[in-house]
Amino acid sequence: MNLIVEKHVPIAMRDGVTLSGDVYRPSEGEPRSTVLIRTPYCKDDPAHANTWINVLRAVECGWVVVVQDVRGRFRSEGQFVPFVNEADDGVDTIQWVREQPWSDGNVGMAGGSYVGISQWLAAARNPEGLIGIVPAVTADDVHSGWLYEDDNVVLGFLAHWVSILLASSGMDEESRPRIAALERNVAEGRIRTFRHLVEEAGEFAPYLQDWRDRSRSLVDPELAGRVTVPAFVIGGWFDIFLPGTVASFVRREAAGTRNAHDRLLVGPWAHGLMGGWFPARSFGSASSFDGLDPTSLQLGWLEEVRDGLNQSEYPVRVFSMGADEWRCFSSWPPEGAERVHLRLRPGNIDHPTESIDARTAPLLDSPVPTIGGRTFLPGYKVGANSGPRLLEALHARHDVHAFASEPLAGDIDILGTVTCRLTVTAAGPTPVVVKLATLDSTGTPELLCEGSSYSRTGAENAESISVDLGSTAVRVAKGMRLCAYVATSDFPRLEDGTRNILNVCADEGPVLELDVLRLG
Q1: How confident is the model at residue 193 (pLDDT cuts 50, 70, 90)?
Q2: How far apart are CA 468 and CA 480, in angstroms?
Q3: Among 41, 131, 255, 310, which residue is least crowded by beta carbons within 10 Å?
Q4: Dihedral sign, CA of 462, 464, 470, 475?
């Protein structure tokens, strides 16, 4: 097959701004369906254009592919303001595609991260001709999915992402040293609060303060529930956007917009690392996203939607860690999963805080360090700071509380959402961070999932806190234990803001709420 590549094709928007796109299409034959990829990361970079769907393979399979720079990025005109223009520009681009002689009028969208949320935004307008979207490793809710975890700013992601955007913005000679300094400060952990990030980024990222002030109004938090076109949602257990990814799939069921073609796929992946391996653990060759043949997987799904075929009985496919196998279900959490309440107690783990009164022990000068998990930090493409890391370093800190379960009486599969409920007192308003780990027979703690909330009462008033730890899929073997580490900081994943002495009421002990399928 011969193909035609049309570079830098002008595409006019409704307000007169012209965006630039590359069109890849067969050189002859009847009109074809189109995959649209709208990116802020440079359409001319093959690494970005081919991250989720191999462009040339898609053309060989009979599709047209359009890769477009979003407004204000690289070859496209206008000013780049994250999220703000993607709905209108996405709708206008879809209309432009449908008007071309090589188009049969059917358009699907694909891509991850910002490319993923741009799909949700366009799809919420229900444009004619859009047959389906494949939003990967993204969230449709900007406030709780991108910027905040409860009321805690997800600083590590924001600072690193903004520095990447600015570094690729084609700054003039005078501005480049300042952007380079910002990159270094982010990489070396010197940006410690959101306010500091705003000051450092300055006029280069004027949208930052808007995120802080208006993040709840930038994007409708019920966006996914208003989308009626089918959605194939892809996520990773250690991806920065995991809670928002799963929520966007589940939200459609609650809103009554669930489509028979909807799919959810989640693997043991982190943002930028889809191979299923991390420095501390490998989940085997079967866990790799590439092993699923993502191009065929996504194109095949788009063809099923377009042609009205094969509505699967099992739309949910997840990788179960520990068992290291893929499993398929009809819903998430799976039907038949039991909501289990598991009480945790102090003294079940070799931990120095057992002999220290945490109510009087002073806070350490440095915040509790981020160790793996759902992060987007420098080195993200090799998992340098993400994934299932060992948490033994936390044992040396008296400002970290540890609570563990009794050894499990039998194997269990945790498949679904994880919540930690605990009662705390604090010297003042402070974050409450919970990291859940598995403990093997040697007592080695391996991070499974994490989350945070915020204690607002202060003084000595006891407060019940519920911390959402997201979703997971893991087999925990007989004899293993689950351990929750509780602290008031997690830097640089969360901003290093106000920290106060925190006491966890051990008499009651934290309670884990888990969706569990029992084995045997």
Answers
A1: very high
A2: 22
A3: 310
A4: positive
Residues 255 and 277: their CA atoms lie apart, in Å, by 36
Per mean pLDDT, which range of 147-161, 170-184, 230-244, 404-418 is the poorest? 170-184
Q: Which residue has the tokens 């705003």?
A: 198
The average confidence (pLDDT) of the chain is 92
pTM for this model (two decimals): 0.95
Query: Residue 380 carries which DSSP code?
Result: G
Answer for the pair 418, 410: CB distance below 8 angstroms, yes or no: no
Question: pLDDT-derived band of residue 84, with 50, 70 and 90 as boundaries?
Answer: very high
Q: How far apart are CA 441 and CA 407, in angstroms?
A: 9
Question: In 72-125, where do the E strands start and end?
Answer: 103-112
> By three-state DSSP, how is residue 415 classified?
strand
- Alpha-carbon torsion 420, 423, 426, 428, what sign? positive
Distance CA 331, CA 24 (A): 37
In this prediction, residues 338-348 reach a mean pLDDT of: 88
Decide if 4 contacts 27 (C-beta within 8 A): yes
Whether residue 333 has a cis bond before it, omega within 30° of 0: yes
Cα–Cα distance, 279 to 384 (Å, whole number): 7
Which stretches within 329-374 are classed as H helix? Answer: none
Kindly give, in sequence order, each residue whose CB lies less than 8 Å from that of residue 45, ignoring residues fewer than 6 positions away: none
The helix or strand, by DSSP H or E, that contains position 6, with its residue range, turns out to be strand 3-12
In this prediction, what percent of the chain has a pLDDT beyond 70? 96
Per-residue pLDDT tens digits for 378-415: 999 999 999 999 999 999 898 999 999 999 999 999 99
d(CA 78, CA 72): 4
Distances (CA, A) of 379 to 45, 96, 382, 465: 20, 38, 6, 33
